[in-house]
ATP synthase subunit a
Amino acid sequence: MKQLCNIIAPLILFCLMTAGMSAFAQVQSGVAPQEQTEAVSQVQSGTAPQTQSEVTLQEQKENTVDVKGIVFGHIGDSYEWHITTWGKTQIIIPLPIIVYSEASGWHTFLSSRLEENGGTYEGLSIAPAGSKYEGKLVEYNAAGDEVRPWDISITKVTFALLFNSFLLLVIILCVAHWYRKRPRGSLAPGGFIGFMEMFIMMVNDDIIKSCVGPNYRKFAPYLLTAFFFIFVNNIMGLIPFFPGGANVTGNIAITMVLAVCTFLMVNIFGTKHYWKDIFWPDVPWWLKVPVPMMPFIEFFGIFTKPFALMIRLFANMLAGHMAMLVLTCLIFISASMGPALNGTLTVASVLFNIFMNALELLVAFIQAYVFTMLSAVFIGLAQEGAKVKENK
């Protein structure tokens, strides 16, 4: 197949998310407010040891599950890849930080240097919560204000994007190598190669050919690439362990680039009939002069179409990840509500997580399908009146 050199093929992987977190117990204080206030003041002044109530309050605070931190820590980007926590030891893969500062020039180091040096290294540190650049690398000028350097670091999402792209490249080159070794008209492939041919032809015939129209061969490489790129990144995002689990397609920067690519394909290769319908559509004259109402609406639609593609993919994949994480955290939030309620919610949470993982596997395909289909429809609308070129 000639188009195999221009497309990316999927790798089907599915693994149910598991969590290993310790439950926590809530202990009632039983200390009068006055006694508690006096005890706290004594501890703060250093004149008395901690009371049982203070120890209990401290344990409760330490054992509280930070749902917000877990959810946004997973779906957000970071300068390191947190694998797991084994006891009190955190297993983390440091990632390379590459920044350029107008004041001090280039800086290249591993993110572990920040932790080793108290959160600051070579004048750079990660902005704290509530800051304008929260979670990003910043430096401070003479006035003490945060200054954002030019940051091209290999973050978690960037690393996952590069890894997934490399994986896709390996798969498609292996498939292309099989076809290159065999003459045209030989026996049909089987196994994984046969599955890939079936998958590719399904996307090509059912989506691209039917939506773009007679000139579909010209745009098939891009649309096939977009489909399998989204699909594989969606599948990899469902794997709960390294190198999977990164929320690549739930990052709006990624979906924005995909939408911009479709925007360029639509408008660069649009025919004169397409542009004529934009600026002078076939509607009653009073909708075009003296106020160009319809031309303005049509021109505005040029930008709303890719915007809809960007938001649709981003929101659906982000919501799925958040739902599964919240359902998992529900087990540990309910640990203090008694064994009966906690056991019931645990069973419900596990069952819902299994259902959500199965649903997300379906959504991974549907979102790639919808993005490719809408892109093909937009491209097909822009090909009105185009001459068909035979591509043998």
Q: What stands out?
A: The two ends are 12 Å apart (CA to CA). Residues 84-151 form one domain.
